[in-house]
Amino acid sequence: MQPSIFVFDAYGTLFDVHAAVRRHSEAVGPDWEKLSHHWRAKQLEYSWVRSLMGRYVDFWTLTETALDHAFQSYPALDSSMKPTLLAAYRSLDCYPEVPETLSRLRAAGCQLAILSNGTRDMLDAAIAAAGLNGLFDAVLSVDDIRLYKTDERAYELATTYFRVYPEAISFQSSNRWDIAGATAYGFRTVWINRSGQADEYHDLPAAAVLPDLKALLRV
Length: 219
Description:
alpha/beta; six-stranded parallel β-sheet; 9 helices; 6 strands
């Protein structure tokens, strides 16, 4: 039986996390890609460390702090671009296939939601900038419970909202660690492996591995 509830991670799954720096790559400098990847890595690292310590700080604050560290790590780049990059992060590009995929799933009668570490303000801004308003039944932010994925209580936001057991939900993420957490919770998981990364967490496998979200329409 095909699932009728599709829950999506936001950053890296629906929205291209490197779009902010790419958009201003010439102004940032020649190592803009290294800066962008460092920014993302620290953003995630800070969320995991904060979770382990039990000292929650919202995702927008972590995003800003991670960018500070990235600029400190690449001092030759123009750190005066920080406000510009943070503004761009609030209006990230979605991946090309996202609008059509979501529209077709919704037209087929599926229920759609986002479940993200991002704050509600961040998510609302990104959805509006990408023209995805009206496509989601729910936008669920871990900020409401002040803890991050992969804590099972973060995934529970979705089952509570839809009033279903975990196996009734198809959960899509480009982050393999997120897929591992969602699999452990009991979701049917789909790893969107855009860059062909090697698999890990072999004891917590995804139900499907796809190159992009459009492939969902063929599953």
